[in-house]
């Protein structure tokens, strides 16, 4: 019996000139997603996808390569202005924004959406020594 291969149907996302850039930068990886105004992803990239391994994934150079790869696809589809939302404590936050701006997509605003604990988790009980 021959196996039939079914081609995956590509989602059709409306690309307008204005959108959002979501940059998630942790200690282990950096992920850049460029979305339209509704939050539907136009293009995305990560340091792992670009071939960086282990501790090289959280470097500013990796962030630069990731943002450039992601911005090139979105620029070709028609994205021209973005509002950048930056999340996390990682190294490549600024370099990712600069690379997006340098690739022809204008960054109009930068918003830090890093989650901050109000009181945090309950601490572990005291050790009995």
Description:
The chain has 129 residues and is α/β, with parallel strands linked by helices. The chain has a single domain, classed as Nucleotidyltransferase, domain 5. 22% of the residues lie in helices and 27% in strands. The protein has two helices and five strands. It has a five-stranded mixed β-sheet, with helices on one face. Strand 1 (18-25) and strand 2 (30-36) form a beta hairpin. Helix 1 (60-77) runs parallel beside helix 2 (93-102). Part of the 30S ribosomal subunit. Interacts with proteins S7 and S18. Binds to IF-3. Belongs to the universal ribosomal protein uS11 family. It comes from Fermentimonas caenicola. GO terms for molecular function: rRNA binding; structural constituent of ribosome.
Give a nutshell description of this structure.
The protein has 129 residues and is an alpha/beta fold. It has a single domain, classed as Ribosomal protein S11/S14 (Nucleotidyltransferase, domain 5), CATH 3.30.420.
Describe the SSE topology.
Blueprint: E1 18-25, E2 30-36, E3 41-46, H1 60-77, E4 81-87, H2 93-102, E5 106-112
Parallel strand pairs: 1-4, 4-5
Antiparallel strand pairs: 1-2, 2-3
Helix pairs in contact: 1-2
Distance between the termini: 68 Å
Tell me the radius of gyration.
18 Å
Query: CATH superfamily, called what?
Result: Ribosomal protein S11/S14
Tally the beta strands. Answer: 5
Element pattern in H and E: EEEHEHE
- Strand residue percentage: 25-35%
> What general form does the structure show?
globular
- What structural class should be given to the helix and strand makeup? alpha/beta
- CATH class term: Alpha Beta
CATH topology type: Nucleotidyltransferase, domain 5
Keywords: Ribonucleoprotein, Ribosomal protein, RNA-binding, rRNA-binding
Subunit structure: Part of the 30S ribosomal subunit. Interacts with proteins S7 and S18. Binds to IF-3.
Organism: Fermentimonas caenicola
GO biological process, one term: translation
């Amino acid at each position: 019996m021959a196996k039939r291969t079914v081609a995956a149907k590509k989602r059709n996302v409306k690309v307008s000139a204005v959108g959002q850039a979501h940059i998630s930068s942790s200690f282990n990886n950096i992920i850049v997603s460029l979305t339209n105004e509704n939050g539907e992803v136009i293009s995305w990239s990560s340091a792992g996808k670009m071939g960086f391994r282990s501790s090289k994934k959280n470097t500013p150079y990796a962030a630069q390569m990731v943002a450039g790869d992601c911005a090139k696809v979105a620029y070709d589809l028609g994205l021209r202005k973005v509002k950048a939302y930056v999340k996390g404590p990682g190294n490549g936050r600024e370099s990712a924004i600069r690379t997006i701006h340098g690739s022809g997509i204008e960054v109009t605003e930068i918003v830090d959406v890093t989650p901050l604990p109000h009181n945090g988790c309950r601490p572990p009980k005291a050790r009995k020594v």
